[in-house]
Amino acid sequence: MNEEYRPEYKKKSIRSFVIRAGRMTDGQKKAFDTYWPVYGASLFDGPLEPEQAFGRSAPQVLEIGFGMGDSLREMAENEPDKDFIGIEVHPPGVGRLIYTAGEAGVRNLKVYMADATDVLDDCIADNSLTRLQIYFPDPWHKKKHHKRRIVQPDFVQKIRRKLKTGGVLHLATDWENYAEHMKEVMDAAEGYKNTQADGSFAPRPAYRPITKFEKRGEKLGHGVWDLVYEKIGER
Asked: Which residues take part in binding S-adenosyl-L-methionine (predicted)?
């Protein structure tokens, strides 16, 4: 992988992801040259200043691990009243997102190619997000790898600090075991409440697009589980 396309991160002991280089297309490489100056944000620039980044003050939505970015771009197009921040460590996905966003003329989007924990710590203000979403994170199937799952008690508290009161954390997975794990973590998490009155999984909110991957899974009889939890107050 070209050095200039490497993700940014600070050293730490346990990661929730593995760098998979992947082969970047010429289009993705060109996208970095053309569109990174428009959409790119650096971990090392410190706190994100929304009015400077987006030219306005609007509700902020952050997605961790947007993959190839199609659903994030679609949400940014469908919700022009909100500003979207995406975090992803895999350069091909970042390249695809910024290319398709640029071609579509999307203006309410900024992208970090960096570790999510680092970005939350150094760049995102407390009590600033209307919604934080994590869709189809790596389930880390083997029990010995469960510590690598991104949805853990400490991490959801880090997220809670970044959400406004009344803001929501929206999780989705197509692995039932991970869905149960996430629900267990969230039900025990201080300062959150399930938006479903009966404490169940949520129907897919209209704002979350159905991905091609999800459509394929549905045809094969695979389930998808959504969880939406609201921040209810400060410590």
From this structure: 63, 88, 115, 138
142 is known to lie in a ligand binding site: yes
Look at strands 40-41 and 225-231 and give their pairing.
unpaired
* Banded model confidence at residue 14, pLDDT cuts 50, 70, 90: very low
pLDDT of residue 76: 98
The pLDDT-based confidence of 114 (bands split at 50, 70, 90) is very high
Q: Is 3 annotated as a binding residue?
A: no
Burial 66-76 (b: 16+ CB within 10 A, else e): bbbbbbbbbbb
**Taking the model in full, what pTM does it have?**
0.89
What is d(CA 107, CA 35) in angstroms, rounded to the nearest whole number?
A: 11
Q: Which of 70, 122, 138, 226 is catalytic?
A: 138
CB 166 within 8 A of CB 230: yes
88 known ligand binder: yes
Cα distances (Å, whole numbers) of residue 123 to 33, 46, 67, 115, 174 = 23, 5, 21, 11, 30
Q: What is the largest CA-CA distance in the chain?
A: 50
Hey, what domains does the chain have and what are their CATH numbers? 19-231 (3.40.50.150)
Residue 83, Cβ neighbours under 10 Å: how many?
24
